[in-house]
Automatic annotation (TrEMBL):
Gene3D superfamilies in the record: Nucleotidyltransferases domain 2
Residues of the signal peptide: 1-21
Originating organism: Salinibacter ruber
Coiled coil region boundaries: 579-665
InterPro entries assigned to the protein according to its UniProt record, in alphabetical order: CHP02231 (IPR011935)
Signal keyword on record: yes
Protein name (record): DUF4139 domain-containing protein
Key words of the record: Coiled coil, Signal
Keyword Lipid metabolism in record: no
Record region (Disordered): 324-349
Length: 676
């Protein structure tokens, strides 16, 4: 294995700081690991002599990740000392410490108000004015504009100068001039993101091996593939896989070991670089009446001592477990045929994979040795060049195209490597055939890919139909449970106008709660579709009938159900005979209850009519003399009505008793009724 070195750091520069301890300590970057979560792990390895202090330089946005992830190791008996770096106070807090506060934007008027009492000299055209700043005040100018006027106190008293006319202002106090320079330097430093020096100290004797690693933000690595289809409908195709990486740094890569990991570890940004302050309440001093001294009893105190120990820092670089092989790198060569006699292009010729694959815990990874890439450049690295099993198919998905399937292939990953998700360009007989997308494919797994519309095959999905029939029923404690079977059917008609047989995969929607009854042979199942295969000969038409079933259970409370509905249930031929007989018996009992209820309702209506007639007779009797014949007739009629009312009351009582008995009999019958 070669001994690659990266002379300039990834996202940083590694420079010697203490020439007295070591004249030129070198710990170059040897390894970079890219993850799918937008970060990379960078590791330095090298040797140092004696006690050495080294400097890593980072930009501001990198400091947050570095302070969260930096790990160091002195492998030969040395010790890792203090790591120090410049404090990064917020600019506003830094500027508050100067006499001149530049934390907020503003013009000369705002700045002049901060400097009241300062001696200045102003130049306005050919005139020079000197004095002490009293104030700067805004005034209304022409057309509503605001003009600032500076009031100075000099030998001639107070003088107002329009700041719009001031061309030059000089502070007479050298200390104030120095403060202004410091404040402006602080603003300039805040814009400089490349001068944050992190100093590492390694203490020890003699020559020692040291390592440093950290995580920083990095572009996500990507993959793309080239699929070369076999000449036959099924056979060995050729798969090329390329990794796309970007060196978005200010340093060249020279012979770095590059590892590409499929996983997406949890990664976040937390600002550990900017000092954090807590706002404390301001308590004003109070003055009150003097208080007499008070003597307190002795209390119990406890002392807490915190001892800090410094030990060696170590970590386990688990990513070193990947296997590595040496292989030369080459580029994919492309060219267009200039004459009919020119041979077809073979994209697989001359391309050799330079990566090895291995599992890294729950992830998988590719490792490429000896990668050199200039700064701010990208590269494509061949990581897979292996044969794999390919079957040509056409795949019909009505959501993609309602009438035509897509040309595609069923890939079986026989490369022995994990194929990461990525786009794919498909080549057929040396010519470009279309683009496809492939998901993550472990070794041995199969995937379907599609790349072009197949206009030789037409599919008519037809219209589906649904039927529902009762299968059986049971009664448990007066509850009728009916099991129904719903059947949905759909027929696909396939017409092949091509010159060769078409192997077609139809994606039929998979619905929750439904079971596929036909066809019995299913190519694949996913969470959303069934993949059903059929073959249609050249110039032929075929049909694929699909049938799905769904069992439905419906429960009906028989108590309270009217007679007609009970008889309707009883006439359902799919129910067992004993269930039908029980429903008929319940219907008869329900009919008796209903008949009694109807008789009772009629008797109550007759009673209401007689009572109304009784009231009318009594009102008429009040209007005639008691000695008249008409009064006597009304009296006889009133007596007859009262007799009838009494008779109806007796009948109503009897009917109510009968209704109760029949309702109880029906309730007891249904409550105890159980037929499984």
């Amino acid at each position: 294995m070669s001994a690659p070195r990266l002379r300039a750091g990834l996202f940083l520069l590694l420079l010697p700081l203490s020439a007295a301890a070591q004249s030129d300590p070198t710990v170059p970057i040897e390894k970079v690991v890219f993850f799918k979560s937008g970060v990379s792990y960078v590791e330095h390895r090298g040797t140092v002599q004696g006690t050495t202090t080294m400097t890593l330089r980072f930009r501001d946005e990198q400091m947050k990740d570095v302070l969260k992830s930096l790990v160091l190791q002195d492998l030969s008996g040395g010790r890792v000392g203090t790591i120090n770096y410049p404090s990064q106070d917020p600019l506003s807090r830094t500027l508050e410490g100067f006499q001149v506060d530049l934390s907020e934007p503003g013009g000369l008027g705002r700045l002049s108000n901060q400097l009241r009492g300062a001696a200045v000299t102003l130049a306005t055209g050919d005139t020079t004015v000197g004095g002490t700043i009293v104030s700067a005040d805004p005034q209304d100018g022409p057309n509503g504009a605001t003009q600032w006027h500076l009031t100075l106190y000099g030998d001639g008293g107070l003088q107002s100068v329009a700041l719009d006319h001031v061309q030059h202002l000089r502070f007479e106090d050298p200390a104030l001039q120095a403060e202004m320079r410091k404040a402006l330097d602080a603003v300039a430093r805040a814009r400089n993101q490349d001068e944050n020096a992190v100093r590492l100290r390694f203490s020890g004797q003699g020559t020692r091996r040291v390592r440093a690693g950290y995580v920083v933000e990095a572009p996500v690595w990507k993959t793309s593939y080239r699929l070369l289809l076999p000449d036959a409908n099924e056979g060995q195709g050729q798969m090329q896989g390329w990794a796309i990486v970007e060196n978005q740094t200010d340093a060249d890569w020279e012979g770095v070991d590059l590892t590409l990991v499929s996983g997406r570890p949890v990664s976040f940004v937390q600002d550990l670089y900017t000092p954090t302050y807590v706002d404390r309440p301001v308590v004003a001093p109070t003055a009150g009446e003097p208080l007499p001294p008070k003597q307190y009893r002795e209390g119990i105190s406890s002392d807490t001592a915190t001892a800090a120990t410094q030990g060696d820092v170590d970590f386990n670089a688990s990513l070193d477990r990947s296997r590595r092989v040496e292989a030369g790198q080459s580029a994919l060569k492309a060219g267009a045929a200039q004459a009919e006699s020119a041979p077809q292009m073979d994209p697989s010729q001359g391309v050799t994979a330079t990566a090895t694959t291995a599992e890294a815990g729950a992830f998988f990874q590719y490792t490429v040795d000896d990668v050199s890439l200039p700064r701010r450049r990208s590269a494509m690295l061949p990581i897979v060049t292996e044969p794999l099993q390919v079957e040509r198919i056409s795949l019909y998905d009505p959501d993609v195209h309602p009438t035509h399937p897509l040309h595609g292939a069923r890939l079986t990953n026989t490369t022995g490597q994990h194929l990461a998700a990525g786009p794919m360009s498909v080549f057929d007989a040396g010519s470009y055939a279309g683009d496809a997308r492939m998901g993550d494919t472990p070794p041995g797994d199969t995937r379907f890919v599609t790349y072009a519309l197949n206009q030789n095959v037409q599919v008519d999905a037809g219209g589906g139909r649904t039927e529902e029939t009762v299968q059986t029923g049971t009664i448990v404690e007066g509850v009728l449970t009916m099991t129904r079977k719903r059947v949905a059917s759909q027929t696909y008609t396939i017409e092949n106008e091509g010159e060769t047989a078409a192997s077609l995969i139809i994606e039929h929607p998979r619905r929750s709660g439904w079971t596929l009854a036909a066809p019995s042979d299913v190519e694949e199942r996913t969470a959303s579709v069934y993949r059903l295969r059929m073959t249609v000969g050249a110039g032929e038409t075929g049909e694929l009938a699909v049938e799905e079933t769904k069992m439905l259970t419906r429960r009906h409370q028989l108590l309270g159900t009217d007679r007609d509905q009970l008889l309707s249930y009883a006439r359902t031929g799919a129910l067992p005979d004993d269930v039908q007989d029980a429903l008929k018996e319940a219907a008869d009992l329900q009919q008796k209850v209903s008949r009694t209820k109807n008789q009772l309702s009629q008797a109550r209506r007759d009673l209401d009519r007689l009572r109304s007639e009784q009231s009318r007779i009594r009102e008429n009797m009040k209007a005639v003399e008691q000695s008249s014949d008409y009064y006597q007739r009304l009296l006889d009629k009133l007596s007859s009505t009262e007799d009838r009312i009494e008779s109806l009351n007796e009948r109503i009582a009897t009917l109510e008793e009968e209704r109760g008995e029949r309702s109880d009999r029906l309730g007891r019958y249904l409550q105890d009724l159980t037929i499984d």
